[in-house]
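hiii so um. not sure if this is the right channel but i have a protein structure encoded as tokens and i wanna go backwards to a sequence. like what aa goes where. can anyone help
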């Protein structure tokens, strides 16, 4: 069964420097029917103006992934980490017992676009941690690339949950497929472009849950970038 979460129905936070679209309930946007899917709790599609960003704020008991689509984000946290995340890189922060961090777009002219993803960890009270890995765009054309997993296999960043996260950058006409094991579920997020998933048309910002499906067949109808979550 495939259920579409249309981009136009997402929640929204808009300020003078941020335009954020919320696939699931977040902050002041609350919809009891949209509280996440399986262990996937948040997908925020954030557009951050040049010279602006998120001031220091705190999190706990969450696996937080950052996937940059355009621009670059500068990150600082209470663990002493200072880094810059660009397209083709993934950041994982284990909030655990508590961390504070800030994220900023230091460009004087370019807008930053990123997907902020929260996954509920397998247990609370973990020691906070940080990991950042690179998956160059040119190294993964037309295929699903594992970027995060519960066991850190194949060079992916490790997360504290039974979940696999794949990214794909597709040209028009490219087709990829992913098999789901019995009892597994999937979420697909269209970061940009238009794709067909098991016969359903999905566009920029759309998401879809899939359960009781043996295979996920994805065809790009235009240049596209997607994230696929394989969940328990």
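sure thing!! here u go:
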């Amino acid at each position: 069964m495939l259920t579409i979460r249309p981009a136009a129905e997402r929640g929204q936070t808009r300020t003078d420097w941020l335009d954020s679209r919320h696939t699931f309930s977040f902050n002041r946007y609350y919809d009891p029917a949209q509280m996440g899917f399986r262990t996937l709790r948040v997908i925020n599609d954030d557009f951050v103006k040049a010279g602006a960003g998120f001031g220091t704020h705190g999190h706990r008991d969450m696996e937080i992934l950052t996937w940059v689509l355009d621009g670059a984000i500068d990150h600082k946290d209470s663990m002493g980490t200072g880094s810059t995340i660009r397209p083709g890189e993934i950041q994982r922060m284990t909030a655990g017992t508590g961390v504070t961090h800030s994220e900023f777009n230091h460009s004087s002219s370019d807008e930053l676009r990123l997907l902020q993803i929260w996954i509920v960890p397998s247990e609370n009270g973990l020691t906070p941690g940080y990991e950042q890995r690179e998956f160059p765009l040119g190294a993964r054309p037309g295929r699903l690339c594992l970027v995060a997993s519960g066991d850190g296999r194949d060079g992916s960043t490790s997360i504290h949950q039974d979940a696999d996260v794949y990214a794909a950058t597709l040209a028009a006409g490219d087709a990829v497929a992913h098999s789901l094991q019995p009892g597994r579920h999937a979420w697909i997020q269209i970061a940009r472009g238009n794709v067909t998933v098991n016969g359903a048309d999905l566009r920029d910002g759309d998401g879809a849950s899939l359960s009781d499906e043996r295979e996920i067949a994805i065809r790009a109808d235009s240049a596209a970038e997607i994230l696929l979550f394989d969940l328990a």
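oh and The radius of gyration is 17 Å.
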